[in-house]
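Per reviewer request, we include the raw input and output of the structure prediction for the construct analysed in the revised manuscript.
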Amino acid sequence: MQGRTRTRGDFSPKHAQALATKARVRCVEVTRDSKFGHLGPDFSAIDLISTLYLGILRFPEEDLGHPDRDRFVLSKGHAALALYTVLIELGWWQKNQLTRYGRTGGRLGGHPSSAIQGVETSTGALGHGLPFAVGCALGSKLHATGSKTFVLVGDGELQEGSNWEAAMLASSKQLDDLTVIVDRNRLQQGGSTEAVIRLEPLKEKWESFGWAVEEINGHDHAAIHECCSRLPLRRSQPTCIIANTVKGKGVSFMEGKAEWHHKLPSPSEAESALNELLRGEESHEAIG
């Protein structure tokens, strides 16, 4: 399968880091201007999304809608801005797509819509992305397209029972071209996931449902790429990657704070966040 993205041998963690930083900067700018968004969830997911689009997902003929494309489903739809900004920074979408983001008359809402090319399905009601992705993977297997399906779920989202029904079906059908990535930042809107409904032992739960499981650092671009390059982890089993992340990653005063699930930055907070992100970008360039 030919694709727009780099081959595995060409992947550069440095480029992925630069892409993620640019996307984070744009997220802050858009959220500041629109007074709408979810920066904490965006920032925990953005390194995962950046690496997938830069070095793993394949789109024949550079076409996001090609029938034999790999699929990426953003089940934690409230992190839509992370997906939007990565697609824009990679040149898949025009920058003006973000005009009037989250506002009446705008094209892009706070949750992704399949009305936009590059979005596989509308998500927002949590627990729906994985069942949809199972259908995609099953269709690919039946038609022998060789396409892979990836779905990014929030850890708090795993409290929805529909995920576990889908997990049983995926293992029963031996969908080894399906990969779930759990954004394991351990926080949800109301606080700690373990305080709301305990998820641990999470790895063992997935294994008991018949999945091959690996845990990684969800902000380490090299580790993300290396793991995804070995898929499937085990033949005839779907894969679950538990990506340990930090809510609000990249901006020190947002990191690990549940309130930044949907809190909007004040003008001074936005300026501080942008300065910190840009300093980090300069530091990475100097090291590189």
